[in-house]
Write a structure and sequence with these properties.
Number of helices: 6
Family: Belongs to the peptidase A1 family.
CATH architecture of the largest domain: Beta Barrel
Keywords: Aspartyl protease, Disulfide bond, Glycoprotein, Hydrolase, Protease, Signal
Largest sheet: 17 strands, mixed
Protein name: Aspartyl protease AED3-like
GO molecular function: aspartic-type endopeptidase activity
Helix content: 10-25%
CATH class of the largest domain: Mainly Beta
Shape: globular
Organism: Senna tora
Number of domains: 2
Strand content: 25-35%
Structural class: alpha+beta
Number of strands: 27
Bound molecules: 2-acetamido-2-deoxy-beta-D-glucopyranose
Distance between the termini: 46 Å
CATH topology of the largest domain: Cathepsin D, subunit A, domain 1
Length: 442
């Protein structure tokens, strides 16, 4: 009896010790991995993010529905990403009341480094951050005056001519200033340069926009890091450091405590990964186009006219992989055909919820077919988690895709975040390919 108690006591001690050990060893789950160039990719409304969900009802399905309601503005934005030379004012939806962008990464700017949580955007090139004194920005800003490595750039700087929305005078030695629209809001910035630190990598003299004024509510509060393929993007400005290669793995929307990872450079990328060619559109230099050749619902290859999926550099038509759109959007005839086949296979009645028009009672979920995206040389069968979303009450499941807004520019199919959860997506801009592999990243 006494021995039993002592044993219990010792067990308790060991347990307590173990718990103590694990809490003191456990790394901050929100910290960036300090050992290599992996960066954590944090869901903007996840635990590790400084941003709070916009609504009081912050269950994850409602957060997604709120976020997805901004997708039409995002698609408009993507449809207007033309090179700066031919830019004209674009039709843009009115500003939304909360910030756009789905994932943030921790970045340090300046010397000593100032921490910013910047939105990751694979469809933009420029980086920009709110600077101190900015009109309309939130409290966290970058302070140029406290950085010893800061410099401003003039209109004659080669990087200046690559900025979209440039507003330099024809002559003179003005600062390089530009105005841009982003997801229905606009901002005024000047191009500056300073050190950019990502995990342990430092890129000196990185050119980015110092935002001086914003109007509208959808400008990312702590700035944006452009991972596009155009001239001012991270890949272009980091030269040989990353050899034109990066990948990310986005965590599940459900496990919002967790973060995914951004791997910059060829080191540490998956050795065997199926790939599809990356297509270049000179009229949309930032975007990562791929060749979507078909979509299957269960075993049925959905009949789709090939011109609805075809890549056309002149009209901008085709399919891109994007990190800033929440749910995948297909041009209307493509979406309707996929949805009709899906409904056909799931017996039951259907209702709508937010952007989703194919919701059904969860008990029918076992009948829900898988969705397979066929790309040149690569078939991607979406895990169920990536094709269905559940209502916050849990009684409904919805097909988590939608039609692109039906306007004149509606030619673009966008493979979005929700469909990319727990996949490693690797962009190799030197060998022009995109690799996709399953990975549990949360
Ligand atoms: C840029 O934005 C600023 C501030 O909103 C405004 O004063 C300026 O006129 C704009 N410039 C151009 C060229 O649109
Ligand atoms: C960065 O810019 C500063 C000022 O323009 C210059 O003195 C310095 O040599 C540059 N550093 C690098 C690494 O290019
Ligand atoms: C896309 O795939 C289709 C079907 O295989 C092919 O006919 C077409 O040429 C491809 N387009 C590009 C731009 O590679």
């Amino acid at each position: 009896m006494g021995g039993h108690i002592i044993l219990n006591f010792i067990t308790t001690l060991i347990l307590l010790f173990a718990i103590h050990l694990s809490t003191s060893i456990a790394l901050d789950p929100c910290a960036s991995n300090p050992d290599d160039s992996d960066l954590t990719v944090i869901p903007i409304y996840g635990k590790c993010s400084p941003f709070n969900p916009p609504k009081t009802d912050s269950s994850w399905p409602n957060t997604i529905i709120n976020m997805a309601s901004k997708d039409p503005a995002r698609l408009n934005y993507l449809s207007t990403l033309v090179p700066q030379k031919s830019v004209s004012s674009a039709p843009i939806a009115s500003g939304q009341p909360f910030n756009i962008g789905s994932y943030v990464v921790r970045v340090k700017i300046g010397s000593p480094g100032q921490l910013m949580f910047m939105v990751l955007d694979t469809s933009s090139d420029e980086a920009w951050v709110p600077c101190s004194g900015c009109t309309g920005c939130s409290a966290t800003t970058f302070s140029p005056t406290t950085s010893t490595s800061y410099g401003s750039l003039g209109c004659s700087d080669p990087h200046c001519s690559q900025v979209r929305g440039l507003s330099c005078p024809e002559t003179g030695t003005a600062f390089c200033s530009f105005n841009q629209t982003y997801a229905g809001s606009s901002f005024a910035a000047t191009l500056v340069q300073d050190s950019l630190r990502l995990a342990t990598d430092v890129i000196p003299n990185y050119s980015f926009g110092c935002v001086n004024a914003i109007s509208g509510g959808s400008i990312p509060a702590q700035g944006l890091l452009g991972l596009g393929r155009g001239p001012l993007s991270l890949l272009s400005q980091s030269g040989s450091l990353y050899s034109g290669v990066f990948s990310y793995c986005l965590p599940s929307f459900k496990s919002y405590y967790f973060s995914g990872s951004l791997k910059l450079g060829p080191v540490g990328q998956p050795k065997s990964i199926r790939t599809t060619p990356l297509l270049r559109n000179p009229h949309r230099p930032s975007l990562y186009y791929v060749n979507l050749t078909g979509v299957s619902v269960g075993r049925v290859l959905v009949p789709l006219a090939s011109e609805l999926l075809a890549f056309n550099p002149n009209t901008g038509a085709g399919t891109i992989i994007d990190s800033g759109t929440v749910i995948t959007r297909f041009v209307e005839p493509v979406y309707n055909a996929i949805r009709d086949e899906f409904r056909n296979q799931v017996k039951g009645t259907f209702s709508s919820l937010g952007a989703f028009d194919t919701c059904f009672i969860k008990t029918y979920e076992t009948l829900a077919p898988t969705i397979t995206l066929h790309f040149t040389g690569l078939d991607l069968t979406l895990p169920m988690e990536n094709s269905l979303i559940h209502s916050s009450s849990g009684s409904l499941a919805c097909l988590a895709m939608a039609a692109a807004p039906n306007n004149v520019n509606s030619v673009l199919n966008v493979i979005a975040n929700l469909q990319q959860q727990n996949l490693r997506i690797m962009f190799d801009t030197v060998n022009n390919r995109v690799g996709i592999a399953r990975e549990l990243c949360n």
